[in-house]
Design a protein that fits this description.
This protein is of the alpha/beta class. The protein is 35% helix and 17% strand. It contains 15 helices and 16 strands.
Length: 387
């Protein structure tokens, strides 16, 4: 990896985001109807490799049920309004109705009441009643306690998620979770996030987890990169962590799914994530625009209500269509924000690959002009790729 001097005796390597690369078609093409975009997690196959992120403006019981019936995975946030309030709909309405100036202060007050542990089991059972998988998310400090409750309630996949998660965590204030012990205690697949580097990904895989979330700060509603100055562009982060996955598989014969989390706003971005080595992707903004989403056209990051240092903001994304249209089409927009699975399958066909594993091998080029070349009228008229 080439490094450049950015000052006296200080080097830095160049990293890349989705807008800076493009995918190159190969020597053959495949009918999109003949490709298989499915992925496996802990030996179980899911036909849609797109997860809805654990954000209160995206996933509630109703959304999780709808996503599951379409064949996708939606993650419910156990740190949010769904487990703090018996009637979260009223609270969500307040957040959606707040002015931009009021939003952060309001969310801070709304997320102040303690989590009601009985609601964890209740929400999981409500999702299971729809005959779909129940997937939930917790911060590391509460993972052991919430994981046990979730497992007893019939949870199918447990996600341990923080802004930055490492296997080694030092704290004088609280006891850090033993991730390896947690993975061995829970009798369900565990996904851990978030990380962006080869070494950390490799160490986290040693815990026995089944999946890793890749991405720090790329989300539409996230301000981590501005507030803390940390993060790695998603192309480089995904490639590095996928390399760790491959090394771990070669060494231990266990395949840990790499899930690129955030930074994708169009079908093209999703396709690039898979080419970089992702087994699945996690989206928030795209699904916050669904009619079924609980945010009523608004979207906010998980750390937006932090009491001392918010690292997210509430944004208006609008309502673009049904969940089915966004995920499976038919698209009513021309900018790549709907029929995301169709876009992936069409891209796979044009690239000449039949499955996600083959997608990992397509040629990638550095192409910073890919978004603007020949698009002067779209940009001027703010249509298509110029929106």
């Amino acid at each position: 990896m080439a490094q450049f001097y950015i000052g006296v005796e200080r080097k830095a390597r160049r990293c890349y985001g989705f807008d800076e690369i493009a995918l190159v078609p190969g020597k053959l093409t495949v009918n999109p109807a003949d490709v298989d975009p499915g992925f496996q997690l802990a030996g179980k196959k899911y036909k849609i490799p797109i997860l809805a992120s654990a954000m209160d403006g995206v996933v509630d019981v109703k959304f999780a049920s709808a996503m599951g019936k379409l064949g996708g995975i939606a993650v419910l946030n156990l740190e949010g309004v769904q487990t703090r309030y018996d009637n979260p709909l009223e609270v969500l309405e307040k957040i959606a109705s707040a002015t931009p100036q009021e939003a952060t202060k309001l969310t801070q007050s709304i997320y102040r009441p303690p989590i009601k542990e009985e609601l964890i089991a209740e929400r999981i059972k409500e999702i299971k009643k729809a005959n779909v998988p129940a997937i939930v998310s917790s911060i590391p400090q509460k993972a052991e306690r919430f994981g046990k409750i979730a497992q007893e309630a019939g949870c199918d996949i447990f996600v341990v998620q923080a802004t930055v998660t490492t296997r080694k965590h030092i704290s004088k204030e609280y006891k850090s979770v033993d991730l390896k012990k947690l993975c061995s205690l829970l009798k369900m697949p565990v996904i851990i996030g978030n990380c962006v580097t080869y070494d950390v990904a490799l160490e986290l895989m040693e815990t026995g987890c089944d999946g890793l979330l890749i991405g720090i700060g790329p989300g539409t509603a996230c301000t981590t990169r501005g507030v803390l100055g940390i993060g790695v562009p998603q192309v480089t982060a995904t490639i590095d962590c996928a390399a760790a996955r491959n090394k771990y598989f070669k060494k231990k014969k266990k395949y840990v799914s790499v899930i690129t989390d955030g930074g994708m706003s169009t079908g093209g971005d999703i396709c690039k994530a898979f080419a970089c080595g992702a087994d699945a992707v996690m989206l928030g903004n795209a699904f916050a625009r669904a009619e079924e989403a609980p945010g009523r056209g608004y979207h906010w990051g998980m750390a937006t209500p932090h009491p001392n240092l918010p690292r997210g903001t509430r944004i208006k994304v609008g309502t673009a269509g049904t969940l089915s249209e966004i995920l499976l089409g038919p698209a009513r927009t021309d900018d790549g924000t709907q029929n995301l699975l169709g876009a992936l399958m069409t891209s796979m066909g044009n690239l000449g690959v039949k499955n996600i594993k083959e997608m990992h091998k397509v040629e990638i080029i550095i192409a910073p002009s890919i978004q603007t070349e020949g698009k002067v009228f779209q940009a001027a008229q703010r249509v298509g790729m110029g929106k």
